[in-house]
TrEMBL record:
Stated role: Catalyzes two reactions in de novo purine nucleotide biosynthesis. Catalyzes the breakdown of 5-aminoimidazole- (N-succinylocarboxamide) ribotide (SAICAR or 2-[5-amino-1-(5-phospho-beta-D-ribosyl)imidazole-4-carboxamido]succinate) to 5-aminoimidazole-4-carboxamide ribotide (AICAR or 5-amino-1-(5-phospho-beta-D-ribosyl)imidazole-4-carboxamide) and fumarate, and of adenylosuccinate (ADS or N(6)-(1,2-dicarboxyethyl)-AMP) to adenosine monophosphate (AMP) and fumarate.
Catalysed reactions listed for this entry: (2S)-2-[5-amino-1-(5-phospho-beta-D-ribosyl)imidazole-4-carboxamido]succinate = 5-amino-1-(5-phospho-beta-D-ribosyl)imidazole-4-carboxamide + fumarate; N(6)-(1,2-dicarboxyethyl)-AMP = fumarate + AMP
Coiled-coil blocks: none
GO biological process: 'de novo' AMP biosynthetic process; 'de novo' IMP biosynthetic process
Pfam family for this entry, one: Lyase_1
Protein name (database record): Adenylosuccinate lyase
EC number assigned by the record: 4.3.2.2
Organism of this sequence: Klugiella xanthotipulae
Molecular-function annotations in GO: (S)-2-(5-amino-1-(5-phospho-D-ribosyl)imidazole-4-carboxamido) succinate lyase (fumarate-forming) activity; N6-(1,2-dicarboxyethyl)AMP AMP-lyase (fumarate-forming) activity
Domain spans labelled Fumarate lyase N-terminal: 59-308
Length: 465
């Protein structure tokens, strides 16, 4: 028998709660139930606003009271719902009864039968998920991603002219600038932001098998598809006219695939920054009072980026699974999506935690210009590319008759460390024009960065607040 009080099973609700707490307002069970109440109330108001089945529009006071009931959904309603669901054994039916209780408190029992009118549970659920996921993405997840991008953009600008030895395949390669390399990630992430911001959140509202059968049975004179579209779009969602009992979840699969892709770009960022730290291009700024190692006092470990890697992998595992499985439902309905969708918040939570760690990690590093410069000065052989390219241009222009300049530079540089004097002597002996020779003799690894700095001009403009 455990002596511990009840404990959160997930670290997202325990150790890392502070980093992901904002998602709880939307992607928790309580957040889902709050959205369900909102949908039930708005449907009831839609029916009465249109005076269907002999009803009349509610007065402003009652409308405000019902909307406040949905808006202010809190612990009292959570507890009441738990009590009702213990009896109904059905979560959406419990929400319906909760709304009916509120109507009774307001003296509106006469319209109680319009609660959940002609709805299947999935009519309420799919709209509620559309609302909660949209709010989580637009109100919580995207703003945090934007913070990461803003910090990356700031550092890209700060280091846009700071030369850095590139390391393609981990080997010394044509130099770049630290700022340009960070700008690559800004550009990649901005593209994903643009796609995610344009995502559609679909909703259906057409009854037990998507046919409006119960609606027509109740009143065949109403244009129910038009009413359904008007209601769904009033909630800020895109209407899906052709469904089974469930909304087909394709929009969710598309969204989660994009977020997983974004996670993977962030994972690439985390591994690159980790590597730059390991070779000394970035210094870590010690945090007062923090311990890097329990036994090695000198250490400052890149834990922010390591934590981010793990959480991005977990997020992708969950979101990839959701994207793959939610698009399949046996014939008109099965319940596999019910349990799966309850883990949406977990997928987003691990991504949020990773974003938090990356943002904090970026704030705890600083470039090491002296080490970057020393690394460049120790790898003059990277100028071999420039020299053989210039020779080719000179041959084409008729100012040189050198045969196979690539082979000549390969012989000089491959697998070797050569210095400025070695390259200068080689260039002096080349059969090339005087201007070309002067350009090559002026080159250093630190100056051989092409248009790296200017390329930052291709970054998208900063998104409007």
């Amino acid at each position: 028998m455990s002596t511990l009080p009840p404990q959160p099973l997930s670290p997202l609700d325990g150790r890392y709660r502070a980093a992901v707490a904002d998602l709880g307002d939307t992607l928790s069970e309580a957040g889902l139930n709050k959205a369900r109440v909102h949908v039930e109330v708005e449907w009831l108001l839609y029916l009465t606003d249109h005076s269907l089945f002999g009803s009349t529009p509610l007065g402003a006071e009652n409308q405000d009271a019902l909307r406040a009931f949905a808006r202010d959904f809190g612990q009292t309603e959570i507890d009441t719902l738990a009590t009702i669901e213990a009896r109904t054994r059905h979560d959406v039916k419990a929400v319906e009864y909760l709304v009916r209780e509120k109507l009774s408190q307001l003296g509106l029992d006469s319209i109680a039968e319009l609660t959940h009118f002609a709805c299947t549970s999935e009519d309420i659920n799919n709209l509620s998920y559309g609302i909660t996921v949209r709010e989580a993405v637009q109100g919580t997840w995207l703003p945090r991603l934007r913070q990461v991008i803003a910090e990356l953009r700031r550092q890209a600008e700060e280091y846009r002219e700071l030369p850095m030895l590139a390391r393609t395949h981990g080997q010394p390669a044509t130099p770049t600038t630290l700022g340009k390399e960070l700008a690559v990630f800004v550009y990649r992430l901005e593209r994903q932001c643009e796609q995610i911001e344009a995502a559609e959140y679909l909703g259906k509202f057409s009854g037990a098998t998507g046919t409006f059968a119960a609606h027509i049975a109740a009143d065949a004179a109403v244009d129910w598809p038009a009413a359904s579209e008007e209601f769904v779009t009033s909630l800020g969602l895109t209407w899906n006219p052709l469904t089974t009992q469930i909304e087909s979840h394709d929009w969710q699969a598309e969204l989660y695939a994009r977020i997983s892709h974004t996670n993977r770009i962030l994972h690439n960022l985390a591994t690159d920054i980790w590597t730059y730290i390991s070779i000394g291009y970035f210094r870590q700024i010690p945090v007062e009072g923090a311990t890097g190692s329990s036994t090695m006092p000198h250490k400052v470990n890149p834990i922010r980026f390591e934590n981010a890697e793990a959480n991005l992998e977990l997020s992708c595992a969950i979101l990839d699974s959701l994207a793959a499985t939610l698009v399949t439902s046996r014939m008109q309905r099965d319940l596999t999506d019910s349990s799966a969708q309850r883990n949406i918040g977990v997928g987003f939570g691990h991504s949020m935690l990773a974003l938090d760690n990356i943002l904090r990690g970026l704030g705890e590093i600083d470039a090491a210009p002296e080490l970057l410069a020393a690394d460049l000065d120790g790898n003059w052989e990277v100028l071999g590319e420039a020299i053989q390219t210039v020779i080719r241009a000179e041959v084409t222009a008729g100012r040189s008759s050198i045969q196979d300049p690539y082979a000549a530079l390969k012989e000089l540089t491959r697998g070797k460390r050569i210095g400025a004097a070695d390259l200068a002597a080689f260039v002096e002996g080349l059969e090339i024009g005087a201007d070309a020779r002067a350009r090559l003799l002026a080159l250093t690894p630190a100056s051989y960065v092409g248009l790296a700095s200017e390329l930052l001009g291709y970054l998208p403009a900063v998104a409007a607040e």
